[in-house]
């Protein structure tokens, strides 16, 4: 297990959420969305991007803190999360629900699905119905 995996898995917990600057959060979100990215790709995707050197500095700090993993391939440095993007998204969502919906998944779902123009595929709707039924039983 990589040294930053445990901390990274809980990076969006309330107790860790204030440990990141706005730029660090933006970088982590880019990596989370794209999986494996280079510093140049991160620079291109950052809003109002700082200099390439500043991006490299942010990446170096995140790697040192165990929040990102750096690998080398094809003559480039590549950055990725030490946990799967799915696990990182689940942790972020759990923290969000805890913070903004008093830990009520039902209230969060109602807020999301209660918006106008929300469209679900047949498969998504069936999966939600299945999950709701399972939650009722437990």
CATH architecture of the largest domain: Orthogonal Bundle
User: Into how many domains do the coordinates divide?
Assistant: 2
Largest sheet: 3 strands, antiparallel
The radius of gyration is 18 Å
Describe the structure.
The relative contact order is 0.13. β2 and β3 form a beta hairpin. This protein has 2 domains: 76 residues, Winged helix-like DNA-binding domain superfamily/Winged helix DNA-binding domain (Arc Repressor Mutant, subunit A); 35 residues, no CATH class. Helix content is 57%, strand content 9%. The protein contains 7 helices and 3 strands. The longest helix is centred in the C-terminal third of the chain and has 16 residues. Strands 1-3-2 form a 3-stranded antiparallel sheet. The chain is elongated and about 50 Å long. By secondary structure, the protein is mainly α. The N terminus is likely disordered.
Short characterization:
The chain has helices spanning 5-9, 22-34, 39-45, 52-64, 85-100, 105-113, 122-137; strands at residues 37-38, 69-73, 76-80. It is mainly alpha-helical and 138 residues long. β2 (69-73) and β3 form a beta hairpin.
What topology does this entry show?
Layout: H1 5-9, H2 22-34, E1 37-38, H3 39-45, H4 52-64, E2 69-73, E3 76-80, H5 85-100, H6 105-113, H7 122-137
Antiparallel strand pairs: 1-3, 2-3
Helix pairs in contact: 3-4
